[in-house]
Amino acid sequence: MSFNRRDGLNWAELSVTAADQLDQAGVRYPSTGLCLAATAVQNINALASDNLILWDTHQAEWGSDVFHRTASDTYKITILTAGTYEMSASVAFDALSSSSARYNGIARFNLNGTTDFGPEGKGGYVRDASGHTEASVHIQTFPKTFAALDYIYLKVDRESNPTGTINTTPGASALYIRRIA
User: Fold this and answer.
1) Which of 88, 87, 90 is nearest to 146 (CA)?
2) Which of 1, 120, 131, 161 gives a 20 to 30 Å CA spacing to 65?
3) How far is CA 153 from CA 13, 57, 160, in A?
C-alpha cells in the first residue's frame, strides 16, 4: 500500500492507538481513508444489472484498514480491519451515441457479491432524443459495519428496455470510504 502525505505528515508513521489519529494541531483524522476515481470510459448499459464501476485511480489514501488494486479487480474494495466505516459514491454518465438513447440508472453498494446494502442512488435519467445527454446518481454518506475480509463494490443497474450506449464520464465518478470506529 502507498500512503499519501498531507500537510507534510505521513499518516502511516503516526502511532496513535485510538481509532482516530491527531495531526500537529490536534485535529482528528480517521485511521483509514480511501477516495477512488473512475477515469476511463465504461459502458454501464451493457447488462441489466451488476454493471461494476471500475476504479482505476486513488485520489487520496491513508492507513491500512482497506485494500484496493488499480491493476486487477479494480471494482473490488476489501476491508482488512473489522469496524464501522463511512462511505458514499457518485457516478456520472452520458449518452455519446449517434442514435437516441434512453437510460435510468440505479447505483447500489454490494457486500461480498451477494447482498446489496445502504441507500441507493436514483434519478439518473437520460433521454438523448430530448437533448438530455448527461446525468449522475449519488449515494448519500452513511455508516456500515464490516467484518475483516468483507469486500464491497459499487454497481449500476438499469431499467428494462433502455436504448443506446451509456458511458461513465471520465474523471467524474468517485467512491469514498473511511473507518470511523
Assistant:
1) 87
2) 120
3) 29, 15, 22
Which grid coordinates belong to 9? 505528515
Alpha helices, DSSP H only, in 117-174?
none
Tell me what pLDDT residue 123 has. Answer: 78
User: pTM value?
Assistant: 0.79
CA 71/CA 53 separation, integer angstroms: 14
Nearest to 177 by CA among 69, 89, 57: 89
The partner residues of 116 in beta bridges, in order of sequence, read 110
**Mean residue pLDDT across the chain:** 81
- Interatomic CA distance for residues 28 and 11, integer angstroms: 12
Domains of the chain by range and CATH? 33-179 (2.60.120.40)
- Is 52 a residue whose pLDDT tops 70? yes
